[in-house]
Amino acid sequence: MASTKKKTAVATTSRARLASVIKSARDTMRKDAGLNGDLDRLPQLSWLLFLKAFDQRVEQVGPLLDPDYRPAIEEPYRWENWATKPDFSGNELKTFVNDELIPYLAGLKGSDGDADDPRNVLSTIFKDVDNRMQSGTLLRDLVNLVDEIHFDSSDDIHTMAFLYESILKEMRDAAGDSGEFYTPRPVNRFMVQQSFLGLGESILDPACGTGGFLVQAYEDLVKQVETDTQRRRLLDDIRGIEKKSLPYLLASMNLLLHGIGAPRLVRENALLQMRDATAADRVDVVLTNPPFGAEEERSVVEKFPKGYQTQETSWLFVHAILDQLKKDGRCAIVLPNGSLSDGGVGARIKQKLMKECDLHTIVRLPQGVFAPYTPIPSNLLFFEKGRPTKEIWFYEISLSEGRRSYTKTKPMRFEEFEPCVKWWGGAKREGREEGGYAWKMSAAEIENAGFNLDIPNPNSAEDLTHRSPEELVTELIKTENEILGLLDELYDELRSTV
């Protein structure tokens, strides 16, 4: 097929226009018999968006930056060669996509060992991509709609990234039904912010999912970039590992939309990847929400030392992260309440953690932060490698007034972390005080308790016999208001499902 010259795109595309195009694309996919639900439709849209964005942000820009640039995708497989031809439709288009385009992209080979070669990124993505649309005519309609989306200016990128966040949220909602829980963005922001990242630090999420931590880290750090050298270093320092093909595709698209054309993502079992890592692979910062409650294969478990072998993935991740961090490296990780109280192997890994690292802060999240996927209460652990733990500070995030839990329609807001941020004491954690929602325990107390880290707030267990009638009535009114608030939320959810 010969290349067809493309129309010049407008300078920017409004958010409303992009939203309209995306809605039309999704309406088109709903008509196709081969796509069943968002778990089919959104990946289909994502890989097409990825090819269009890759063509504009990488292939078209490459020759302008480097006269010797070699296109990662050769003719006739580039977007402009096939996607911009309105008469290329029906079974002819479907056959080309299924039998030629996707196999070609999946078979691309870049430089050996070069994770930044875009051909390696493309082949990793497309080796698990399928065109699930049965109608070549509807596929043509979908491609036409995607081709209307432009990535020519920074405004376009930011607008599309904003809309893509909403798509990812729905993707997470759909994935949650299949047992995958994604980190809410307010939690992402808080963990990244309280890790106090700096330019020049290598940052890894070994269970990166759709790339939320990596995007947040990049957005925070790119504000500090002043030179091309710093920017290139930053792109190299943002790294992720993802086991499953669908989140890997979504993470690649997410990072591409935020300015990372060849993201350093590895599609592997992160536990095996980290166990096989060398000293040169160690990183400065790990930000992650590993899978918990799942079981790993025996061959993976046996990669770990005797005495630390367990099928509970969350503890295997903690153990692997300890070896993945550089000296003085630091980590912020999500763990459920149940893991914190584990004995046996879990207790031994907690002992190892406190011996090798300063587990300085545990933030206890309120009920329902991960709603509607799971009601399991979770915690954020922050630790630094290189010195043993002397004491652990605990901080309990309280629910907003009138709330008993969070829901899908009324999730946690980033502003609810503000009291904890003020208490934190900056990067050096200075001036912390006990009381209200903050308390601490010595390492010796934790050890005597069998390394149980599921420590309730001692300041919330007040003796009712020493409280005045006025206090008790006030507490009763507060409880009644919370119940009414919960009923309002339930009523809103019921209305939204009608």
Automatic annotation (TrEMBL):
Signal peptide start and end residues? none
Return the protein name: site-specific DNA-methyltransferase (adenine-specific)
Please tell me the species this chain comes from: Lentzea atacamensis
Q: What is its EC number?
A: 2.1.1.72
Q: Note the InterPro entries from the entry.
A: D12N6_MeTrfase_N, DNA_Adenine_Mtase, DNA_methylase_A-5, DNA_methylase_N6_adenine_CS, SAM-dependent_MTases_sf, T1MK-like_N_sf
Q: Which family does it belong to?
A: Belongs to the N(4)/N(6)-methyltransferase family.
Name the source's superkingdom.
Answer: Bacteria
Q: Which transformation does this protein catalyse, written as a reaction?
A: a 2'-deoxyadenosine in DNA + S-adenosyl-L-methionine = an N(6)-methyl-2'-deoxyadenosine in DNA + S-adenosyl-L-homocysteine + H(+)
The residue ranges of the DNA methylase adenine-specific domain are 157-464
Q: Matching PANTHER family, A to Z?
A: SLR6095 PROTEIN (PTHR42933), TYPE I RESTRICTION ENZYME ECOKI METHYLASE SUBUNIT (PTHR42933:SF4)
Q: Give start and end of each N6 adenine-specific DNA methyltransferase N-terminal domain.
A: 18-145
Question: What keywords are annotated for this sequence in UniProt?
Answer: Methyltransferase, Restriction system, S-adenosyl-L-methionine, Transferase
